[in-house]
Known about the structure:
By secondary structure, the protein is of the alpha+beta class. The protein has two helices and four strands. The protein has helices spanning 2-55, 60-70, and strands at 80-86, 94-95, 112-122, 138-148. The protein has a four-stranded antiparallel sheet with strand order 2-1-3-4, covered by helices on one side. Helix 1 (2-55) runs antiparallel to helix 2. The termini are far apart. The model has no long low-confidence stretch (mean pLDDT 88).
Amino acid sequence: MRTHKLNDKGAALVEFAIVVSLLFTLVFGIIEFGLMMKDYLTLNQAAREGVRSAAVGSPTSVVETRVRNSAATLNAAQITITLQKRTDVTGAWGALGNSTDGQYNNALPGDQVRVLLAYPHTLVTGRFFSWMAGGGTSIALHGDMVMRRE
């Protein structure tokens, strides 16, 4: 009878180990997903602020500063900003800005302006969820907003 109780304790320990590992995976997954979603929403808000600034005719340097200031919780040095414009909805996207100084907003009223952002979200859990990042420790997040130039 005594050996039967010892076997029950061992089984309970194995069950506890399985349940705790699943619980930790679930909790860390929720935390990682929440932080990634926060960065994604911050990036999209920064793109919205930047494209609004470009739509009212601000120079490209002001647009980039507005984007970086709007993403205060992100590492501003890691944000890649691409500014584009196009004349009609079927045309190709071209660079927003003058080719000589890169500061002038050359979009005409009625043109579409676009702000594309890329940001590497560093996984807080490190290598625990590295399979989501293709084996790395960061996932590329993207933000894209388009408005009509006023």
